[in-house]
């Protein structure tokens, strides 16, 4: 494989960026096209900027996702070994369960297979009202630092990028259909990209529902509301399962911010926070994790004492049938080429990113060789 074989990646979220890097490493000459890039003003159309994000496997019954998550964890641990200063850190995470049902037990059994230092908490380690608990180390990704860092890696490997809103994937193949494209970053001197890629990799996330040539009606949002709290003293993450089904979670970031969540609202496209949900997240948050409050404010347990930096809403790109890692063919403008799909990661896009990227590039290599 020579470096001049052109491949297009559509999407610059965590899926697109990771896949683009793996494609470069496989010898392809990669150009990314996207409406939104890391560092842009946050938009509901770009899920990656809103993610929490840590690695807690959710693949209890999904073998493919489990494999992708496992590979991704190894990649992150390897990266950290090489450079401990990357925007990812390892932190202890606690699971607190008010009442353990069969599903909860299944999840704990699953987690015990995913994290090497997993252990159940002793009864004397459980706070009041919690009947079961566990603890293990996992990675926490500092999203506002991580996305530009991955983009930088892509550009440093010679990658090129263009900003544009594409009506369809095939619009990239014809001068007449192409929307206006501007080089990204704007200071780059990228020349207009070719019209003849050997393949296109589709990493459009929730956009896979509306972009032409894909129009995947199986993609829907699982809306997530979270708060960014300033609490640099927090040293461990927490998942707290309330008896009524509400999940409170806290994820520390390298920056000293903590993500406090959250909601999981299926097929809900509402793009801004709802005051009643914000209140619930705060109330449940300080009940489960009073240490989120500054030390001198803990006793009063007043939600107004939480140092809220931002209210966030993101749409997890969920898909009936799970992640789409598949090749289809595109016939347009007298050309025929493979499309490799890599989208539909729901609430697991970071923790399955490197595994999915490798799987997508394996598909790309076979499709191109055929
Ligand atoms: C509150 C919340 C918490 C989360 N926590 C975690 C977590 O702890 N761990 C975890 O692993 N995951 C988590 N996630 C999920 C994770 O954020 C997503 O799975 C992931 O970001 C999806 O990435 P993506 O690259 O597929 O999509 P996106 O980030 O949405 O990127 C899509 C890209 O495609 C481009 N695009 C789409 N359509 C077009 C078009 N027509 N023309 C041009 N460009 C287009 C967009 O501009 C963008 O660049 C969380 C999500 C939320 C909302």
From TrEMBL:
Binding residues for D-dopa: 249, 316, 347
Pfam families, alphabetized: DAO (PF01266)
Keyword list, A-Z: FAD, Flavoprotein, Oxidoreductase
GO annotation terms (biological process): D-amino acid catabolic process
PROSITE patterns: DAO
Binding site for FAD: 47-48, 204
Residue span, FAD dependent oxidoreductase domain: 7-363
Stored InterPro entries: D-amino_acid_oxidase_CS, DAO, FAD-dep_OxRdtase
Taxonomy, superkingdom: Eukaryota
Cofactor(s) it depends on: FAD
GO molecular function, one term: D-amino-acid oxidase activity
One of the record's GO cellular component terms: cytoplasm
Protein family (similarity comment): Belongs to the DAMOX/DASOX family.
Protein name: D-amino-acid oxidase
Source organism of this protein record: Mycena albidolilacea
Lineage: Eukaryota, Fungi, Dikarya, Basidiomycota, Agaricomycotina
